[in-house]
């Protein structure tokens, strides 16, 4: 199981042999495999088995392999011996030790050589040898004159800081070197200093000369460049420069984009997106506030939050909200015939007393002035009185005007539509709520009812609005049945019904399903009793139109639109055409059917049949037509000539008009057939328009030409276009062109070019059997294949058996681990409890001693 077996030595063989003899002598360890029958010439290898031995061997093998893998599971740390030759069995132990020692010495030698500076190796600094740098041969002048500041030559260092003449033996650039061994005289310190000064002056002179030469060369180069530059630049004459205007450099595209981005509007932080619940709450609060304002205006209350009192503001007002806490103006009063200016006190009672005294003093002063006054004063008082009278009259007029305005506002508030409405509990409540209002006001009432009773505002509002959906549908049906039908009101209410349908699709679907189901049942009952049924009334047509607006018509199967489409097909098939009113209802149903299948392009044979029958009604000579008519139309009869045109003069004055839905109730055939050409032409125009739309809709069908062949025959042979008005003649030609231009893409049906499969014969296959259990007559490859299959099954069963045994072994090991852990935990718990009991006993004994 993954690991190579160990080598067997002599001791193992002896022990194994001994154990085998002992086991074989034990009858309880031996199992005899009985045979059903003996076969001559066949050797049996497993007559006698030792299950105990094989079981113990398997357990030992699993402990050495599977158990070790289980214990090392989820453990990444391992001890790996990486010593040289540890896993090489061919190497002797002495060779391993010698090679390990040599490698260790090499590693130690390499580490020591990192910091071992031998004399043979030459050290450098920026590519220059350190030995040459230490000689200090570079001569440097004074600090002021040297270009490289901070560098001292060896001679200067020796002269200023000592060191003798031994360091200055190298020959310099202006002097010579004296050798002691040659017997020449050694220079004194003073001579060396003078020589050094001369060298520095000479070097200074040389640098000055070089600088002057570089300056001269630079000036010369500048002059030469100016002369060359004049040749390179072509100068235009001044006259040409004057004539030509200066062309401004066009800005680059990058600069223009940078400027545009600089002046671009910066993104402004937007408000937080509100949830539908928050929006519904805000709408309700807004409507409640408007309703409270309307009620207040209706009661004549001018004071409130909505009315702002006009306050006079002077031109010097800063409008900064500053208001004085107290009234700082001083009161003007008379006392003993003189002005008396007194300030207000904080006490209100004192103010009232002072005001009374001031009024008394004013009265006395007025009396005294009246007695002492002259005629001029009397004239002045008369003018004042006249002014007061005029002011009083103006005030009375303003009061009457205010009362009239207040009454007008009250009447307007009463006539205004309320802003909040309670959800109707029944259909009668909805009728009372909408009765007497215009279509726009009815739409507003429904919208405000929906906003005031949003499902997120209260627990029972959802059920109320679901009921409102059914009430609105019933109300639309009643509006369609009135005379005249109020189709404008229905048109206004459809958006609100659509909003409710989006909010409660299940409730709207159930309401429409019940309406369609009732209509279908009543039609089926009429067909069973009479054999035919009447066309649906206007309210049912409105319901079918509303279904197409509220629910998707392109679905393959829908719980509302699919029954509606089936109802339309049933109506076009079972309802007889007995008047122009019935024909108009049928054409309206055809329009609805085309609208239903405009996206899905589903083929409706009832639609094509009804249009073909309608065109057949316009054929005058039906006997020569030779075409079949499918019910609900008849080849001949009382109502087979509804669309026959007998007066060609009325065709010239006819103008195309759309058929309204109300025509299904108002359009009736007159007793004189020649007086109703306009209605017939309108019906015929609608029919031809529908045929054209169907041609465009079904042109991709492979059987398009065969489906529209009867219509093509009627239009080309029996319904001539010279009897029709010019608009209908154009439709006539367009339809024929669309049908004839369609390409035939289908091919004829042929049998499939394939050899037929013969039937299975149940003749038995006879196989010659020479030996029991062995089949003969097969090839060598088949026998090899059978042998491999048998071997595969055998190995597969053996692998499954081993996997089950491994699983049981691991389960036993896990159980033993759990039991060992539990036993260890119990032992520790017992030890802890024992130590606690010992401590408790000692503490109690100590306590008893203290009591004694």
UniProtKB/TrEMBL annotation:
Transmembrane domains' residue ranges: none
GO CC term (a single one): Noc4p-Nop14p complex
GO biological process, one term: maturation of SSU-rRNA
UniProt region (Disordered), positions on chain: 140-219, 265-314, 330-403
UniProt keyword annotations, A-Z: Nucleus, Ribosome biogenesis, rRNA processing
A Pfam entry, by short name: Nop14
Principal place of residence: nucleus
Keyword presence, Aminoacyl-tRNA synthetase: no
Compositionally skewed regions (Basic and acidic residues) per UniProt: 188-219, 265-300
Record-linked InterPro entries: Nop14 (IPR007276)
Biased composition range(s): Acidic residues: 342-399
Record's subcellular location: Nucleus, Nucleolus
Family in the record: Belongs to the NOP14 family.
Function as written in the Swiss-Prot or TrEMBL entry: Involved in nucleolar processing of pre-18S ribosomal RNA. Has a role in the nuclear export of 40S pre-ribosomal subunit to the cytoplasm.
Name of the protein: NOP14 nucleolar protein homolog (yeast)
Organism, scientific name: Poecilia formosa (Amazon molly)
Lineage: Eukaryota, Metazoa, Chordata, Craniata, Vertebrata
């Amino acid at each position: 199981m993954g690991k190579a077996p160990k080598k067997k030595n002599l001791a193992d063989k002896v022990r194994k042999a001994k154990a085998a003899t002992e086991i074989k002598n034990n009858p309880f360890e031996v199992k005899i495999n009985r045979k059903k029958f003996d076969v001559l010439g066949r050797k049996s290898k497993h007559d006698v088995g030792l299950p105990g031995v094989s079981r113990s061997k398997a357990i030992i093998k699993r402990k050495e392999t599977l158990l070790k893998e289980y214990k090392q599971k989820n453990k990444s740390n391992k001890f790996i011996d990486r010593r040289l030759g540890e896993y090489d069995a061919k190497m002797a132990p002495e060779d391993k030790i010698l090679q390990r020692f040599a490698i260790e010495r090499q590693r130690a030698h390499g580490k020591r050589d990192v910091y071992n500076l031998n004399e043979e190796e030459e050290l450098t600094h920026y590519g220059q040898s350190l030995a040459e740098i230490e000689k200090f041969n570079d001569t440097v002048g004074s600090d002021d004159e040297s270009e490289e500041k901070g560098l001292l030559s060896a001679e200067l260092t020796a002269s200023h800081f000592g060191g003798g003449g031994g360091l200055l033996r190298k020959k310099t650039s202006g002097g010579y070197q004296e050798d002691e061994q040659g017997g020449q005289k050694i220079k004194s310190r003073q001579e060396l200093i003078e020589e050094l000064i001369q060298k520095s002056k000479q070097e200074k002179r040389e640098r000055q000369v070089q600088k002057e030469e570089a300056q001269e060369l630079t000036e010369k180069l500048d002059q030469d460049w100016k002369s060359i530059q004049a040749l390179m630049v072509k100068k235009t004459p001044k006259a040409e420069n004057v004539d030509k205007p200066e062309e401004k450099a066009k800005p680059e595209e990058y600069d223009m984009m940078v400027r545009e981005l600089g002046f671009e509007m910066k993104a402004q932080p937007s408000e937080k997106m509100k949830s539908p619940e928050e929006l519904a709450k805000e709408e309700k609060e807004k409507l409640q506030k408007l309703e409270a304002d309307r009620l207040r205006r209706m009661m004549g209350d001018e004071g409130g939050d909505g009315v702002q009192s006009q306050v006079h503001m002077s031109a010097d007002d800063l409008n900064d909200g500053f208001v004085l806490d107290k009234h700082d103006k001083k009161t003007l009063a008379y006392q003993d015939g003189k002005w008396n200016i007194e300030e207000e006190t904080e006490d209100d009672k004192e103010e009232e007393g002072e005001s009374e005294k001031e009024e008394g003093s004013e009265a006395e002063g007025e009396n005294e002035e009246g007695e002492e006054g002259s005629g001029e004063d009397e004239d002045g008082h008369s003018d004042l009185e006249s002014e007061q009278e005029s002011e009083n009259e103006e005030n009375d007029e303003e009061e009457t005007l205010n009362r009239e305005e207040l009454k007008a506002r009250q009447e307007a508030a009463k006539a205004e539509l309320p802003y909040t409405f309670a959800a109707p509990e029944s259909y009668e409540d909805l009728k009372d709520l909408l009765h007497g209002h215009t279509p726009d006001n009815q739409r507003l009432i429904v919208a405000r009812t929906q906003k005031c009773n949003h499902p997120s505002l209260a627990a029972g509002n959802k059920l109320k609005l679901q009921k409102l959906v059914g009430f609105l549908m019933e109300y639309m049906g009643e509006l369609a049945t009135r005379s005249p039908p109020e189709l404008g009101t229905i048109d206004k209410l459809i958006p609100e019904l659509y909003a409710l349908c989006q909010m409660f699709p299940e409730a709207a679907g159930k309401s429409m399903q019940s309406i369609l189901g009732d209509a279908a049942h009543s039609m089926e009952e009429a067909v069973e009793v009479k054999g035919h049924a009447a066309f649906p009334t206007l309210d049912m047509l409105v319901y079918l139109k509303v279904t197409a607006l509220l629910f998707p018509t392109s679905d393959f199967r829908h719980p509302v639109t699919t029954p509606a489409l089936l109802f339309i097909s049933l109506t076009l098939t079972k309802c007889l055409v007995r008047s122009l009113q019935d024909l108009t209802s049928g054409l309206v149903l055809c329009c609805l059917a085309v609208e239903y299948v405009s996206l899905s392009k589903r083929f409706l044979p009832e639609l094509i049949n009804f249009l073909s029958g309608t065109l057949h009604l316009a054929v005058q000579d039906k006997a020569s037509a030779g075409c079949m008519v499918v019910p609900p139309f008849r080849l001949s009869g009382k109502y087979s000539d509804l669309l026959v045109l007998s007066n060609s003069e009325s065709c010239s004055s006819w103008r195309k008009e759309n058929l309204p839905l109300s025509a299904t109730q108002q359009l009736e055939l007159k007793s004189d057939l020649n007086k109703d050409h306009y209605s017939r032409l309108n019906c015929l125009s609608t029919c031809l328009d529908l045929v054209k739309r169907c041609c465009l809709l079904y042109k991709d069908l492979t059987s398009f030409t065969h489906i529209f062949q009867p219509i093509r025959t009627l239009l080309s042979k029996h319904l001539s276009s010279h009897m029709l008005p010019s608009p209908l003649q154009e439709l006539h030609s367009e339809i024929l062109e669309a049908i004839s231009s369609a390409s035939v893409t289908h091919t004829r049906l042929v049998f499939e070019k394939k050899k037929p499969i013969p039937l299975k014969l149940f003749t038995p296959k006879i196989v010659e059997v020479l030996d029991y259990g062995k089949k003969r007559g097969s090839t060598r490859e088949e026998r090899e294949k059978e042998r491999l299959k048998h071997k595969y099954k055998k190995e597969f069963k053996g692998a499954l058996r081993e996997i089950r045994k491994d699983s049981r072994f691991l389960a036993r090991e896990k159980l033993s681990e759990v039991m060992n852990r539990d036993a260890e935990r119990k032992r520790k718990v017992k030890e802890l409890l024992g130590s606690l009991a010992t401590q408790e006993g000692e503490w109690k004994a100590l306590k008893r001693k203290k009591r004694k």
